[in-house]
Amino acid sequence: MKKTKNEEIEELLEFLQELREEIVGKQVVMVVEGKKDKLSFEEIGFKGTYLLTNGSFHRTNYLMEKYIEKGFSFLILSDFDEEGEKIKEEVINYIDSRAEVRLDLRRKLKKVILNAKAPCTIESLSNWLIKRRVGGRSEGGKGTNKGDVYERVIFYGEVCSQI
């Protein structure tokens, strides 16, 4: 049976919670393209260590080396467009099995984002989730089983910032 729009958004929210739980209290570097991507993830409760590529791999490689030496694993959260895929490949090639790269989580994030028809740019994700709230209910006029989207995004952010 085909999922409703609300069920797809719910699946995305549930995965974002799982993703946060995967990184809380662990040595994980979240690799993002820039400051807006970092802010978008922080708005939905992702606190931790970020590495901003900003299109420059000279500085990024130096910082990745430091994180590899300290035993960090990497979670590549770049966009799912051509540039984001290029960044993913460059990070993988540089690390070259010297550290864990959680590609399984990236693939799942891409799947749930596409299923929910969310934007493929990370910087738009938090605003997109918050805008799904219309008149106290999630998009489509029906509430979700676990509360509306906006409240869940804020709730997850508060939980993560307290850890």
Structural class: mainly alpha
Outline the low-pLDDT stretches.
134-163
> Architecture in CATH?
3-Layer(aba) Sandwich
**Helical proportion, percent range:** 40-55%
Note the overall shape.
globular
**Total count of domains:** 1
Report the major sheet.
Answer: 3 strands, parallel
Radius of gyration from the alpha-carbon trace, in angstroms: 16 Å
Brief summary:
This protein has helices at 5-23, 35-43, 57-69, 82-95, 103-115, 125-131, 149-162, and strands at residues 28-32, 49-52, 73-76, 133-134, 137-138. It is mainly alpha-helical.
Describe what you observe in this structure.
- This protein has one domain: Dna Topoisomerase Vi A Subunit, Chain: A, domain 2 (3-Layer(aba) Sandwich).
- β4 and β5 (137-138) form a beta hairpin.
- α1 (5-23) runs antiparallel to α5 (103-115), α1 (5-23) packs parallel to α7 and α3 crosses α4.
- It has 7 helices and 5 strands, in the order αβαβαβαααββα.
- Strands 2-1-3 form a 3-stranded parallel β-sheet. A two-stranded antiparallel ribbon has the order 4-5.
- The chain has helices at residues 5-23, 35-43, 57-69, 82-95, 103-115, 125-131, 149-162; strands spanning 28-32, 49-52, 73-76, 133-134, 137-138.
- It is 55% helix and 10% strand.
- The protein starts with a helix and ends with a helix.
- The chain has 163 residues and is mainly α.
- Mean pLDDT is 79; it is low at 134-163.
